[in-house]
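Final report, closing paragraph on structural work. Over the funding period we assembled a curated collection of sequence-structure pairs, and we close with a single example.
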Amino acid sequence: MSQLVYKIVDADLWESARQSGSFRGAGIDAEDGFIHLSAANQVQETARLHFAGQANLVLVEFDANQLGNDLRWEASRGGQLFPHFYGEIPVQMAGHIWPLPLNEDGIPVLPELNG
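Its predicted structure, as stored:
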C-alpha cells in the first residue's frame, strides 16, 4: 500500500516547477537543504502554522514509495517524524494537485486526504 505525502506550495512556484520538469522546493526548503513534506495527518497543522494568510496555494500529493531513498523521515515539530526529500522531485511524480482556498480565519482549507 502506498503512503502519501504532501507539499503546500505557492501555485506560481509549482507552475514554474511544472514547466521546468522538477520541483526544487520553496525558500525555506533551500535554506534547510531539503524539501519539507507532510503526512496526511500532519498537513493541517502545517497549513495552520506556516501558511496562514497566504493566498494562491496548492497542495501537491506524492507517493512516498515512488520518492525512493531520497525521502527520509526525520524528527521535527514536537518530535514527530516528518518526510523530508533530499534533492529535486520530478513533477511527473505528483499525484493530485488541489487549489487551497483560505477560510474566514485565513487558514488554507484542505481537501479530504487519504494516506
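The radius of gyration is 13 Å. Residues 4-100 form a domain with the ADP-ribosylation fold fold (CATH 3.20.170.20). We thank the funder for supporting this effort.
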